[in-house]
Specification:
heterodimer; A: 315 residues; alpha/beta; six-stranded mixed beta sheet; four-stranded antiparallel beta sheet; 13 strands; 28% strand; globular; B: 269 residues; mainly alpha; 12 helices; binds adenosine-5'-diphosphate; binds magnesium ion
Chain lengths: 315, 269
């Protein structure tokens, strides 16, 4: 199988309940996901990500276009037994405990009880809910619901994991943990497809991304293709800088800005980077990091969608 | 594939157990159950004040009436929110994206609720029997069969509520289901009116047509009501109960099939 997911010309129209007005939620979306990739499905709120993912999972029928997933159609038994899905802002049964919920889903997959018990213990540990075993789900916070949502998506050890906004509702530590989890799923050979309207902490994770806005694809490709391999500039983070004006005068320094209470961010042309670094060291300053300056996905997204801070950088 | 009977059994069982567990821990539902039992007891306490030679008759008659009506009300209330709640709170997103047929999901929900009704009926029946014993009324011989028939009636009503709730709001579904139930208790009256040479149905062909249609599409709920037999001491045979069982099964299967047809085609936004 060459592609795990093939979406071709997908289109979905809704009618609003009250006025029966036609809403074109998704107008024309196509992309292909290869086995073993972490694929980012990006775009601002209302772009049509959730709608597309629901159609991929067989929850809604396309108005037009075709969707192939794991070589079959969305919703098919043989397909869904190899998929794990985390919906946007998942919600579960109020009066169940997390392990009871996982048992319910384990039974649907006909996983034998002894195997189920083991896997549930393991999953609760992986998502960090071991201490929540005696809590009913109605007492779960948003972040905990997100975690049990990820656990239930993994109950069948799926080949393909589809997650709608997996980082929303999580605190910074939780986000880091989920990012690490997604990376470890990839290292187990699984394909990970996830959506996000937040770019900052996921862009490094993705092998490839597709960016959609207002129901259309705006860009698709590897990060390399979209961002270029570099801009010919380096970014230097430096601590303890007081005399900003004199640094700005050094040859090759293009900009200096404050990024933290004690840290400045310098953008320097590659050719002069060594000399600038030497001067900074001679002045007794602390070099925090040096890296290739790349366009961030965020700035790319803003240029693609015609300006404006359409995507939020943080929650 | 999925087709294996064992797999299907597991899946329906998983949903049924889940539905039963959720309901039995739901405070709102437990409250409803306690209120129903209290209502059975208190209504009988009041009706029991009747003249002494009528007392046994009233306690049996009214008790069965209260138990079966309350069970129908509980069936409708829970039946109409059964699917709605899962759609509304989006819990179905994680269920329907598992390898499970939508028919299996509906079957599991229905079975789970029917088990809840068994427990509810058992508790209400127990309350009724206790009142009879305390009031020194001889227990009717076929009391147990009467309760089974009551459950069959509730099962039929539940499948109808399930059908409505696959496409209508809970309130509308509740009104529709209760409406059909009420009409269903009047089927014999309609049949009588149709045989009369006089009366409202004799005068107007349109009304006659309507009544004949109603008799065909609405299940006869009086099949499940044996309060007269209990009071008069007429035996209720197992043969009769099994007839009522198949009557219930036939209608429920029809309602369930229609519900699956609608549910399998719908979008989950
Ligand atoms: N059931 C629906 N009825 C009408 N409009 C809808 C429905 N679902 C989504 N939409 C609209 O479709 C657009 C895309 O929504 P969605 O797929 O949820 O976007 P995203 O997940 O990218 O934020 C939005 O404008 C939204 O308001
Ligand atoms: Mg969304």
């Amino acid at each position: 199988m060459e592609y795990i997911i093939e979406v071709e010309g997908f289109k979905k129209h809704f009618r609003t309940v009250m006025t029966q007005r036609k809403v074109e939620a998704v107008k024309d979306v196509s992309f292909k996901v290869k086995p073993g990739e972490i694929f980012g499905f990006l775009g601002p709120n209302g772009a049509g990500k959730t709608t597309t993912m629901k159609a991929m999972m067989g929850l809604i029928r396309p108005t037009g276009g075709t969707i192939r997933i794991l070589g079959g159609s969305p919703g098919q038994y043989a397909v869904m037994s190899r998929v794990g899905f985390l919906p946007e802002q998942p919600y579960f049964y109020d009066y169940l405990k997390p392990q009871e919920l996982l048992h319910t889903f384990g039974r649907i997959f006909s996983i034998p009880r002894s195997v189920r018990e083991k896997r549930i213990d393991e999953l609760l540990r992986v998502v960090g809910l071991e201490d929540a075993r005696n809590k009913t789900l109605r007492k779960f916070s948003k972040g905990m619901l997100q975690r049990i949502g990820i656990a239930q998506a993994l109950i069948n050890d799926p080949e393909l994991i589809v997650l709608d906004e997996p980082l929303s509702g999580l605190d910074p530590i939780g986000r880091k943990e989920v990012i690490d989890l997604l990376a470890s799923l990839k290292s187990q050979g699984k394909t990970v497809f996830f959506s996000s309207h937040i770019l900052s902490d996921i862009e490094r994770l993705c092998d490839r991304v597709v960016i959609i806005d207002k129901g259309f694809v705006k860009a698709e490709g590897t990060l390399e293709q979209l961002l270029g391999s570099g801009s010919g500039e380096k970014e230097i983070l430096v601590g303890g800088l007081k005399d900003v004006a004199s640094v700005e005068l050094l040859a090759g320094v293009k900009s200096v800005e404050v990024v933290g209470s004690l840290v400045h961010r310098l953008v320097v042309e590659n050719a002069q980077a060594d000399e600038v670094l030497m001067s900074l060291l001679r002045a007794g300053l602390h070099i925090v990091s040096v890296s290739d300056q790349r366009i961030s996905l965020e700035s790319l997204f803003i240029s693609q969608s015609g300006g404006g801070p359409a995507m939020e950088a943080t929650i | 594939m999925s087709g294996s009977f064992g797999g299907s059994f597991n899946r329906i069982g998983a949903i049924a157990i889940n539905t039963f567990t959720e309901a039995s821990r739901n405070r709102a539902f437990i409250g409803l159950g306690i209120a129903a039992i209290a209502l059975v007891v208190s209504s009988m306490a009041i009706s029991g004040l009747a003249v002494s030679d009528q007392r046994a008759r009233v306690l049996v008659d009214f008790g069965l009436f209260a138990v079966s009506l309350l069970l129908v009300v509980i069936s409708i209330t829970m039946g109409v929110i059964l699917v709605f709640k899962e759609v509304d709170r989006k819990t179905f997103y994680v269920v329907l994206t598992k390898p499970i047929r939508r028919a299996e999901v509906l079957a599991g929900k229905l079975l789970g609720l029917l088990s809840v009704l068994v427990v509810t009926l058992f508790l209400m029946g127990l309350a009724w029997v206790l009142v009879l014993v305390i009031r020194d009324v001889a227990l009717p011989a076929d009391l147990f069969k009467a309760l089974i028939l009551t459950w069959l009636q509730a099962a039929l009503v539940t499948s109808l509520a399930l059908l409505f709730s696959t496409f209508a709001s809970p309130i509308l579904s509740g009104v529709f289901t209760f409406g059909v139930f009420i009409v269903g208790t009047m089927i014999p009256v309609l049949q009588d009116l149709l045989t009369l040479r006089k009366g409202p149905l004799a005068a107007s062909p349109a009304m006659r047509f309507l009544a004949e249609g109603t008799i065909k599409v609405v299940p006869d709920m009086t099949v499940f009501n044996v309060s007269k037999e209990l009071i008069l001491g007429i035996p209720v045979t197992w043969h009769y109960v099994s007839g009522a069982f198949f009557y219930c099964l036939g209608w429920s299967a029809l309602f369930f099939a229609l519900a699956v047809l609608i549910f399998s085609r719908r979008d989950f936004n």
